[in-house]
Specification:
Length: about 300
């Protein structure tokens, strides 16, 4: 579902231009990761865990999309896609972990605890709650920008797979979680390398946002006025509170941005709205429960003064 005024040539030009920046980041990550392996630096266990995480979510998500039509060519395509994301996640994390741990040690704390199976750690819950808030904020900024640019464009178009409902919608939600990890690792890698070169966090932040904006190539002053705050929000979340919060924000942004939100639950596209909202609420509930740290929801009655 695209705007009829969008010409295919324009869309292909933007997509081809967008691919250059991730490939350049991945190439730099391969060089740095090779150096870390030779010198014995880097969190190899963490890189293995994040690769397994990405592979699991992507394979399960792809497998749930129309399971009755999973033929050999389609399975091979899904497998190769998941393999690329898995290797890219492993290489990028292995390259950036020593730099980030030295410059911004708090960036990876909650993420590391999650990978070690501490699902109800209070820091994990705190990062998830901040990420949900950031994802909702980014979705609202994007929609406000759509309203400002053109009223006809601001119809909140959902992705075709989400609108199909059923297994397609569920598979799309799961895939969004897996792809959000690499979406966050790539700018974090760029940010860490620029911090090494520029020696200033604020300068690395500005250059990273600028390079991502150039890579996206959205075009127009109004589009840049919307995309710059969005990219600034995500890059800022990477620095503080960290990777997990940014991955949660990217997931929520995908949950809501790809859903056709409506209050007409009897409509044929209502499954899209329900799936996106329920996924967001589930992530928020997980974060809230974990952030309590085992404390009662309404407080400890034994400490109340009679």
């Amino acid at each position: 579902m695209i705007d009829p005024s969008d010409a295919p040539s324009d869309r292909s030009t933007v997509e081809s231009r967008f691919i250059y920046l991730p490939l350049a980041i991945l190439s730099l990550a391969m060089v740095v990761a090779r150096r870390n392996l030779r010198t014995g630096r880097g969190d190899r266990e963490g890189a293995r865990r994040i690769a397994v995480f990405a592979a699991f979510w992507l394979l399960v998500g792809h497998g749930l999309r129309e399971p009755s039509r999973l033929e050999a060519p389609l399975v091979m395509l899904y497998f190769m896609n998941a393999l690329f994301y898995t290797v890219a996640s492993w290489v990028t994390y292995l390259a950036l972990e020593p730099i980030v741990r030295r410059r911004w040690p708090g960036t990876l704390v909650s993420w590391t605890r999650l990978l070690r199976g501490r699902l109800l750690d209070p820091l994990v819950g705190r990062a998830l709650l901040i990420g949900v808030l950031g994802g909702v904020a980014s979705t609202l900024i994007d929609q406000v920008g759509s309203l400002v640019q053109a009223a006809d464009f601001a119809r909140w178009p959902g992705s075709p797979e989400r609108l199909a409902g059923g297994w397609n919608a569920l598979g799309n939600l799961i895939t969004d979680c897996g792809s959000a990890v690499l979406f966050c690792l790539a700018p974090l890698m760029l940010l860490a390398l620029l911090r090494q070169v520029l020696r200033k966090t604020w300068a690395a932040f500005l250059v990273t946002v600028g390079l991502i904006e150039i890579g996206l190539g959205s075009g127009g002053l109004l589009a840049a006025a919307v995309s710059l705050p969005l990219m600034g929000l995500f890059v800022g979340l990477l620095i503080r509170p960290g990777l997990l919060a940014t991955a949660a924000a990217a997931s929520v942004s995908n949950f809501l941005g790809a859903s056709l939100v409506t209050t007409h639950l009897g409509a044929w596209y209502a499954d899209s709205a329900v799936s996106g909202i329920l996924a967001t609420l589930a992530l928020a509930a997980w974060g809230f429960y974990a952030a309590l740290g085992g404390r009662p929801l309404l407080g400890d009655s034994s400490r109340e003064i009679a």
